[in-house]
Design goal:
2 domains; 312 residues; alpha+beta; six-stranded mixed β-sheet; three-stranded antiparallel β-sheet; 10 helices; C8orf32 fold
Length: 312
C-alpha cells in the first residue's frame, strides 16, 4: 500500500512541475500470447494479449490492453471469476474515470476502484513499470445478491421461454416486489443500499440505480444481454436490453406506479430510441458516456450478437 501511494505521489509531483513521468517499457517485452475467457456471457470469443518479459515468471499473468473499453471488459470477466487484482500494460496511459464509467454499466454489485503501479528493477534501477487495478466489494453482499438472483430465477429457468417473455417476467416481478425509496431519493449522500441491487433483494426498497442493477443481474442470469445506462443530466438510470436482434430500452423505475396492487405498466418496456425520447443521455465527458458510446460498448462486450444477427 505504501509503495503504491508513494508512486502515485511521485506522478502527481512531476505533473504539477511541468514534467512528464516516463514509464520505462523494456524493448524485450512481447505480447504474442493470448488468453481467452471461458465466460459464456461477457466477451464471448474475445482474446486478450499477454505480456512476456524477462521480469515475469512463467506463471505471471500481465495483460496488454489497448483501450479503456477492453480493460473494463477484462476487469468484469475477472471479477466474476473471483479475481480482484488485474495487472496490465498499455502503449499509452488509460483514463481511470472512463474505465469506471464502463464498469458501472456492467456491474451488478457496487465496487471501489484502486489503481497503481508495479515497478520491476535490476540492480536498483527501474527497468519496467506495469499498471494494476484492484476492485474491492463487500463480499457478503455479493453472496447475498447472487443467492437472491438464483432464488428469483429458479422457477423460470427450465421453462425455455422466449427472451422477451423472460424480460417481461422480471420487469413485472421487480415492480411487484419493490417500492421506490422516496427518502433515499432525497438523500444527497447517496450511500444507502437503495442505490444498489441489494436494496431490491434485501430491503425491497430502491431508487433507479438499484432497480436497474437488479434487473441487469436477473437478465444476466438468464443470459440475456443487458447493460445499465447512467445519466447525470437526467439524474436517472435505466437499462439497455438485447431482444429479437436489436437493443431496446427498459425503465423498471418509471414503470412502477407503487399503487396498492403493484400493477406494472409498460410505457418504458423494450422501447426503441425513437420511443424513448423523454430520457436524456449524457454527452461524452468526465465520468459520463454518450448514447453512442454505450451502444458501441454494449456491442463490444457482447460480440456474439453481431455474428448471430448476421446469420439470421
Amino acid at each position: 500500500m505504501l509503495k503504491k501511494m508513494l508512486v502515485t505521489l511521485l506522478i502527481g509531483i512531476l505533473l504539477f512541475s511541468g514534467c512528464t513521468y516516463q514509464r520505462p517499457i523494456s524493448a524485450n517485452i512481447t505480447h504474442s500470447r493470448t488468453w481467452s475467457s471461458d465466460s459464456a456471457y461477457y466477451g464471448k470469443g474475445i482474446t486478450f494479449e499477454l505480456v512476456d518479459s524477462e521480469f515475469f515468471d512463467a506463471s505471471k499473468q500481465v495483460f496488454w490492453i489497448h483501450s479503456e473499453e477492453e480493460l473494463a471488459l477484462l476487469l468484469t470477466i475477472q471479477f466474476d471469476k473471483g479475481v480482484r487484482v488485474v495487472e496490465y500494460m498499455s502503449e499509452n496511459p488509460l483514463d481511470a474515470e472512463r474505465v469506471i464509467s464502463y464498469l458501472v454499466s456492467l456491474f451488478v454489485h457496487d465496487f471501489e476502484y484502486y489503481d497503481g503501479l508495479f515497478e520491476y528493477s535490476d540492480g536498483g534501477v527501474v527497468k519496467l513499470v506495469s499498471d494494476y487495478v484492484q476492485l474491492e466489494s463487500i463480499e457478503p453482499d455479493i453472496v447475498y445478491v447472487e443467492n437472491e438472483i438464483d432464488e428469483w430465477t429458479k422457477n423460470i429457468k427450465d421453462e425455455d421461454l422466449e427472451p422477451q417473455i423472460e424480460a417481461k417476467y422480471f420487469h413485472d416481478l421487480i415492480i411487484k416486489e419493490v417500492r421506490y425509496d422516496e427518502t433515499a431519493g432525497k438523500d444527497d449522500n447517496r450511500e444507502t443500499d437503495a442505490y444498489s441491487a441489494i436494496g431490491v433483494f434485501e430491503d425491497r426498497l430502491a431508487v433507479c440505480n438499484g432497480y436497474s442493477q437488479a434487473y441487469m443481474g436477473l437478465l444476466k442470469e438468464m443470459e440475456i444481454p443487458a447493460i445499465l445506462i447512467s445519466s447525470n443530466v437526467d439524474d436517472h438510470a435505466w437499462n439497455m436490453v438485447y431482444i429479437a436482434n436489436e437493443w431496446k430500452y427498459v425503465d423498471t423505475t418509471w414503470d412502477d406506479l407503487d399503487d396498492k396492487i403493484e400493477r406494472p405498466i409498460y410505457d418504458y418496456f423494450l422501447k426503441s430510441e425513437d420511443e424513448f425520447t423523454d430520457h436524456i443521455f449524457d454527452k461524452s465527458g468526465y465520468m459520463t458516456l454518450s448514447q453512442t458510446e454505450y451502444m458501441e460498448f454494449a456491442n463490444f462486450v457482447f460480440p456474439q450478437l453481431q455474428s448471430s444477427s448476421t446469420n439470421q
